[in-house]
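Dear colleague,

As promised, here are the two records you asked about, laid out in our usual form so they can be pasted straight into your sheet.

NAME FIELD: protein one
SEQUENCE, THEN STRUCTURE:
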Amino acid sequence: MEKSININVHVAEYRGFCAGVDRAIEMVEKSLLKYGTPVYVRHEIVHNKYVVEGLKKKGVIFVESLADIPKNTKAPVIFSAHGVSKKVIQSAKNLKLLHIDATCPLVSKIHREVETLEKDEFKIIMIGHKYHPEVIGTIGQANNSKNIILVEKIEDVKNLQFNKNQKIAYVTQTTLSIFDTESIVKAIKDKFPNVVEPKKSDICYATSNRQLSVQELAKKVDSFYVIGANNSSNSVRLVETAKLFGSKISQLVENIDDFDFISLKKFKNIGLTASASAPEELIKKFIIKLREHYTITINDQKIPENVKFNVPNFLN
């Protein structure tokens, strides 16, 4: 107990669940009410163990493959917010599974972009992380995998080669670093001046808001803590953003119960946020635990985002 130590806690203005995550979780909850247990979910509905474990307790079974679901089951299978390829949807139909698509509408927008671009005979550059489920699902929208080429870093742009008259466009993963992506896009435009870009940035509003909030706070604090998951792209990007903009110590907090709060005694000002796949209640839990050790002053001016994606009518 270090109650004699005062720590100023600066909480990011934008944090916690985005509208796409809210919608996906609501779809799982409403499926439980409508169909009973079990409800199957292919892949983690969102990349957050706290959320996943909570849903497991309610009767949700998470699987990585449709082959893991018992044959002839009447239970529904829900596709995660990250989206899936056309092949996965076709497999669900072939297996006669009751499948429900909880893909974030902003990811679905990119899926439609890929479909349209391929139909218009474009070669598509996909900026993203190779093994992320969103990227796998987006690439899987192309009927011919040769029509979409993955770029993860600026060095990959140097290796891109297209025929002289080939039409080229790019799309991006929704949860990338807005700062890293800017430099990759610049490299693509420098090499291919006629490249077609999305009418509106593919990086989602929540990702941008959370990164810009962290950017501002990182200049004011001694250390920064991001509540999220190691396999969550948007969580990891927030840690990187805090480091990039001045916070010498930036740490991902996956399990608050295991966090070393004693280590914070050397800091006067700390930054705190929750990624787009981490619930607001984890911010509150972190602060409650912090109060057990220190006298704290909270600096919090949360800004509501007022974005809502409705669940399909058949679940209401």
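NAME FIELD: protein two
SEQUENCE, THEN STRUCTURE:
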Amino acid sequence: MQERIQAAVDEVGTVLLGKERQIRLAICCLIAGGHLLIEDLPGMGKTTLAHALARVFGLDFNRIQFTSDLLPADILGVSIFDQATSGFSFHPGPIFSQLILADEINRTTPKTQSALLEAMEEGQVSVEGATRALPSPFFVIATQNPVSLAGTFPLPESQLDRFLMRIGIGYPDPKAERELLERGADADRGAAVQQMLSVDDLTSMREQAGQVGVSPLLLDYLQRIVAYTRENEAFHFGLSPRGSIAVVRAARTWAYMEGRQHAVPEDVQAILPAVVEHRLRASSDTEGRTGAALVKRLLAEVDVF
């Protein structure tokens, strides 16, 4: 299965050039059963990555453009009176899809942002007194622009914590950008991405990743990381139990993608920035922009053994 995962990474890499690590992290997040937040400048390939992942796994896809006037019903759906039956019938919203792109999530109000909370955590939504299950798998990719913040509503810690990972894509390297320039009008080739895996394959991968072993020594290392965030005065608050569980889930999945049956410290170190940066804040920080520096400190100062 690892060869097929690499084939999927390579296929997505045909449209998101030179970003293998970001693609692998996104696929790791999907296999681990989490949700992904992509924070980067406009035009960096966030939407391209979401489209390509949906195609390569054969998932149903919906894009929701978040704006200031978007309402929860626009996402979840609404009941409409049917004259033929003299009753109300529920019309599901775009959230009833396997992969959701929540584009520019911080441009809508907290009330609408919160409509995603139950869906992301429970895999279901409650609308007009009825609970309705969402498709399985259910994967949310949310995007936000970290620079143009006028008129935005920053995600609170409670909602950031719902995302297993946060990644950035970054500028392409010169070789990749040259290829993009040579493609010209054909640069957006998302429709050309071929399906490499199926929903059944994804289900099987999730089961196998969950069986990857985690040794007591590795858990000791993780607990030292968690304790450091809670006890060091440089941290405004430490990692929550949900955060530490997220690290284990992601490390198991990363080890599985690397073809190992047991997770090792290198797996924790590989996924740690994506999993905990958005969960950490320095004591002197008021805007939540210091997560990357804090993770570097964890990797440098916490002993592996």
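A couple of things worth noting about protein two: The longest helix spans residues 241-257. Residues 196 and 297 are 38 Å apart (CA to CA).

Best,
R.
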